[in-house]
Design a protein that fits this description.
This protein has 278 residues and is of the alpha+beta class. It contains 10 helices and 10 strands. The strands form 2 sheets. A 6-stranded antiparallel sheet has the order 1-2-9-4-7-10, with helices on one face. Helix 2 packs antiparallel against helix 3.
Length: 278
């Protein structure tokens, strides 16, 4: 027994300038830890923990951090989630520039910070969490999360032309499943590559090459945006094996060199192997 339900909800009307969608994950307490795989998707997130916090495990060095209420930036590599107590999380996937739009002090690339990070956006983490908990049901809680964040957006933190530019780049990347070079992406957006690279670097936190690689990797391994667990995690791991791929194909489809890709694949496989997910 692990994930009981994972429900994705559309962004409430009026929050779309910041929020792509919200979600709610629930799981009963098991007494035995279980693990799930979170595949990079090129988006930051804000997650409120209403149950018992789990842990985030970095595959390469096995570093553990609490998976309570978090503000997370975009990731270039997967992370493994571990949970044993009751899981109850309400989350919002933000637009790629979402943390910059909130005026946060950092973009937390490859990292996650406690909800205290929202203080610079004028949000008290305790009051913020309790307002979400007080919702009548999970749908209302998710809406409260989205509206609280959207109302905290700092005017002018991300200039309008940059918003349009990055949104267009995201749309092109999604349509092409990440299989586009940075130069061709900039051409499709209609701006010089250095300008798009600067916009993405300043407001997302990574360069254009990394940003395209995240999307390509996400589509390659078949991630759906939420934790991959059970049979879904097994399918993702199967994609990780890359049987018969040439070094050039490995780089193209994952954004990683064959050596680095093998390190990530083996680390993730080792972390999930003893878990009930396989």
């Amino acid at each position: 027994m692990a994930i009981t339900s994972y429900v994705r909800l559309p962004a409430p009307r009026g929050t779309e300038h910041l929020v792509e969608h919200t979600w709610v994950l629930r799981a009963e307490a098991t007494g035995t830890p279980w693990r799930a795989l979170l595949v990079p998707n090129g988006r930051p997130s804000v997650v409120v923990c209403l149950g018992e916090p789990g842990e985030r495990i970095e595959p390469r060095d096995h570093r553990r951090t609490p998976n309570g209420g978090t503000v997370a930036g975009v990731r270039r590599l997967p992370v493994v989630l571990e949970q044993s107590g009751e899981a109850w999380y309400v989350g919002a996937r933000l637009r790629a520039y979402g943390l910059a739009a909130l005026g946060l002090d950092a973009l937390f690339v490859d990292d996650a910070a406690p909800l205290d990070a929202l203080a610079t956006a004028g949000l008290d983490p305790v009051a913020f969490t309790e307002a979400i908990r007080s919702g009548a049901d999970d749908e209302e809680r998710a809406e409260q999360l989205a509206r609280s964040l959207a109302d905290a957006v700092a005017d002018g933190e991300v200039p309008g032309d940059r918003v349009a530019m990055i949104d267009r780049a995201v749309a092109v990347l999604a349509a092409r499943r990440g299989l586009v070079t940075a130069t061709d992406l900039a051409r499709a957006v209609g701006v010089p590559a250095p300008i798009l690279d600067t916009a993405v670097d300043e407001h997302v936190g990574v360069g254009l090459d990394d940003f395209t690689a995240m999307t390509r990797f996400h589509h390659f391994v078949g991630g759906h945006g939420g934790p991959e667990q059970g049979e879904a995690a097994v399918r993702v791991l199967a994609r990780y094996r890359l049987t018969g791929r040439t070094p050039r194909e490995t780089l193209r489809f994952t954004g990683l060199t064959p050596t680095r890709y093998a390190e990530v694949r083996d680390a993730v496989t080792a972390l999930l192997a003893p878990s009930p997910v396989v």
